[in-house]
């Protein structure tokens, strides 16, 4: 499935994101990057470091701390024919811009009878693990995945970090990209081309016994659990959703129909989660193929704690995935 | 105050999931008394007379013969009189009660023994009051609905449908004993084989129960050789004036002795379910009766502790005769096939020295009785010819240990030395 080419480069997830932004800026002069501290400071997470010096203040725009304002500006620019990349520092602050995103960006094509479209890309950091406590550690992808009119991407690999932005900016409608903060420093391979269309889920590891469905920051944990499970003779298949709206039901269902068991690993809270949505899809469309109840591993339903040990205890962990998979496969519960 | 009660398909064994209503012996409007035979049922094993458990008037027959329904299905409704403090006021409420709570009161009665036959039965045996708090009966109803059907995963059901597998015969290893994929991938070929061999229903019922027992129950076995000179003398005396048809046989004494010993050691009399043992308040001893056409039935003598030896003998005779005459249309009663709390298998008549039985779950013990044989016995340093039998006890090690089982056997042996006190 992966378009394998001879040459691959090793870089951090952060560098892959930056390379993606650079390519967008180089390919299309209508593209610009806008957000809090993206310019002179080089981005709160260092993603846009060096871009201001290279592209200048007209294309790398520092904004005031006003999410509803600069996201609104981005939507206006998109309506006016530009191809803006708006960086909202983290998903936590995106709620301040939610009215712009949900009520404007997502609806204008519909409200204008198809006359207006909003080709904006909004990038935001997400996830927990950096001891940033309850107000800076959320996983709210599911809030946006709920909204018709938006596309929601969750690049979990370096290659997706490199190419998804490019795919998103070519989309005529608003696309949100969630970049998990725990991935930024990881080294990984980047190839010459994207793995697949951005809306396609990918099987990251083939297996026969259980389907582990995940996305974003949880993918490395799931792959780690998968290799551990291999040694226990449980051959799991790992599905990386990649696109959270629209969901690639076909890939999810094909895998579950093969393995008859599914565990969804989602850093969001369980109640009202994407994991719940996927579980329901499986129930509706693959019920007669199931050999065990669908399981969900989600973040504990507490505000994310500040102390490291409590924060880790709240998040889905590799051991949890292994335990859940072994019990499920043994037919216990 | 009148109260409507559901009459349901009873469970007549741990392995019974459905039964066939063959015939109604009553019609709507009939008055019935507790113990009246109201219907003929047929299970995998045999035809059974179904009794009424209440005095009342049959108001509805909901299932027409001949129809197979799952255990717990409501077959009919009976209206019973219930004592009420203000009769007139409750007249209208009672109708409402019938609609809303059709299953409230009969939860405690054997009629409503559904899928967990024996655990509910154990409750039925230990709890006499007809009416219980609403809350508790609702709870129990939930348990019933939860386990009323064979638990199997969706993929298992799909495959079973395609391959026409009988899931009720497959033991599940999943949660709550549910059947999951690996259970049928391992068993499916075997199941087809046995179908090919066209086992009779009874054969497969026995197979299922005995397999379950041997797979789940850690059996251990103790035996004791028992001089029965005194018992034989007592029997001779007791039978002196009796016709051969009313002769008391040794097995009746054994049954009585077992009942008395069980009162002393209730740990062997009851049911092991859901990881714990529940002693039964009654002593209902099942007797293995082999049929001429092959197979066995295991009807129970109820309340053996309350019966005299001649009564035990009469009951045993009657039950044996009806069991053996099943092919000729005789039938056992539902109460006789339900609620055995321990089993006796008597192979002595067949010339066997000793028999180590397989426990019939969820019971926890079975007693094997061997043949009467003449042996040299030592009394006062002298050898004499005497008679002896060998009693074997198979017990469930999850519930009892060897020490207690040995004490029970000793107590049983002692009881049989004093037949006059039985």
Give a nutshell description of this structure:
The complex is a heterodimer of chains A (333) and B (422). Chain A is an alpha/beta fold and 333 residues long.
Account of the 3D structure:
The complex is a heterodimer of chains A (333) and B (422). By secondary structure, chain A is an alpha/beta fold. Chain A has 2 domains: 9-190, Thiamin diphosphate (ThDP)-binding fold, Pyr/PP domains (Rossmann fold); 202-330, Rossmann fold (3-Layer(aba) Sandwich). Chain A has helices at residues 13-27, 51-55, 67-79, 91-94, 98-105, 108-111, 141-145, 158-169, 219-231, 249-259, 274-286, 308-314, 318-330, and strands at residues 9-12, 31-35, 60-62, 83-90, 121-126, 151-153, 175-180, 187-190, 202-205, 210-214, 236-240, 243-245, 262-269, 295-299. Chain A has a 7-stranded mixed β-sheet with strand order 3-2-4-5-7-6-12, with helices on both faces. A 5-stranded mixed β-sheet of chain A has the order 9-11-10-13-14, with helices on both faces. In chain A, strand 6, helix 8 and strand 7 form a beta-alpha-beta unit. In chain A, helix 1 (13-27) runs parallel beside helix 8 (158-169), helix 3 packs parallel to helix 5 and helix 10 crosses helix 11 (274-286). The longest helix of chain A is centred in the first third of the chain and has 15 residues, at 13-27. The mean pLDDT of chain A is 95. Chain B is of the alpha+beta class and 422 residues long. Chain B has 3 domains: 2-147, Beta Barrel (OB fold (Dihydrolipoamide Acetyltransferase, E2P)); 154-207, no CATH class; 217-421, Chloramphenicol Acetyltransferase. Chain B has 11 helices and 20 strands. Chain B has helices at residues 87-100, 117-126, 134-147, 154-163, 181-196, 201-216, 229-239, 250-264, 309-324, 334-337, 402-417; strands at residues 2-8, 18-24, 31-32, 37-42, 47-51, 56-61, 67-70, 74-81, 219-227, 270-273, 276-279, 285-287, 289-290, 296-297, 300-301, 332-333, 342-346, 365-369, 373-379, 382-396. The radius of gyration of chain B is 23 Å and the shape is globular. Residues 84-146 and 188-199 of chain B have low confidence and may be disordered. Chain A binds chain B through residues 260, 287-292, 331-333, and chain B through 153-158, 173-175, 180-182.
